[in-house]
Amino acid sequence: MKKMMLILFVVATATIMFSSCSKKNEIKPTPKNYVLVHGAWQAPYVWDAVKTTLISKGNNVTVVELPGHGSDQTVPSTLTLNSYRDKVLGTISNINGKVILVGHSLGGMIISAVAEQNPSKIEKLVYLSAYMPTSGQSLLDLALTDAGSSLGGSIKGQKILIENNAVGILDVLHDQITNVFIQDGSTQAQNLVLQNYRSEPLIPFTNPVTLTVANFGSVEKVYIKTLQDRVVSPVLQDRMIAASNVKTVYQLNTSHSSFLVKPDSLAILLTKIGQ
For the residues of 49-86, what is the DSSP string, one character each? Predict the structure, then answer.
């Protein structure tokens, strides 16, 4: 009996020691630097839930507030795509190490321009239901080919997208905002979009980007499709993916606002992309 007790004690002790050693020897994922860039008619708030989850997994997360968005009061008519590019370039220059640069919608144009200027700083470019241009294209060039986008439509004879060239802004017909951007969202999420809505600077939509194989072409790219998107249609998403020869593609069954509809699913995808 004593021998049996001794054997059990030795086995239990060895098990505890092995378990302790295993935990000590576990390789923890290296923290990544995520930089998140919002799109048109948006502000940093859209990334709040995704940011929280990424940080909880040990990552570093920086959310960019574009000029003329959120709390920034830059006059819209003074802004260009380069204004946005330079804001992101300044942000990533203050981060130690390479970054995973994520752009949503209009943000895809911006991160492309950033990669052209500073490719060595970027580990990966991630396009989230984003415009992905080839050299010489503007957002407007791509949008005009998108027959499946609700932004090009009209309701009862009134255009959904309203231009005000006098002050250089674009607006979305107010009663169509949630239907276009977040038709599958909760009432709370839809109200958040309405409460934070601001007119969008017009000029950056018309500015083309110049991209080279040596710079932009040297950075790894990932695309996350949104299958219920009414802003950047799935058809256009597929066309841009093919034109840019992107090899890694994921998808979320959401509207244009996946970060508000399925933030956990998006954060899981971004974590996977960062590994």
Answer: HHHHHHHHTT-EEEEE--TTSTT----GGG--HHHHHH
The reply to whether 1 falls in a domain is no
Contact 67, 76 (CB under 8 A): no
Amino acid at 95: I
Q: How many CA atoms lie within 13 A of 157 on its CB side?
A: 0
Q: CATH no. for residue 177? A: 3.40.50.1820
Dihedral angle computed from the Cα positions of residues 260, 261, 264 and 269, in that order, rounded to the nearest 10 degrees: -100
50-82 pLDDT tens trace: 999 999 999 999 999 999 999 999 999 999 999
Q: Is residue 18 situated within a structural domain?
A: no
- Segment 173-221, tens digit of pLDDT: 999 999 999 999 999 999 999 999 999 999 999 999 999 999 999 999 9
Overall domain count for the chain: 1
Residue 2 is assigned to a structural domain of this protein: no
Quickly state the pLDDT bin for 30 (edges 50, 70, 90): confident
- Model confidence at 27, in pLDDT bands (50, 70, 90)? low
Whole-number Å distance between alpha carbons of 187 and 183: 10
Alpha-carbon gap, residue 162 to 169, rounded angstroms? 9
Report DSSP letters for 123-176, one per residue. EEEEEES---PPTT--HHHHHTT-TT-GGG-EETTEESEEEETTTTEEEE-GGG
* Domain housing 105: 30-274
Is residue 202 domain-resident?
Answer: yes
Structure tokens at 168: 């250089």
| Three-state SS at 32 | coil
Total-model pTM: 0.90
CB-count exposure of residue 208 (10 Å: 0-12, 13-18, 19+):
middle
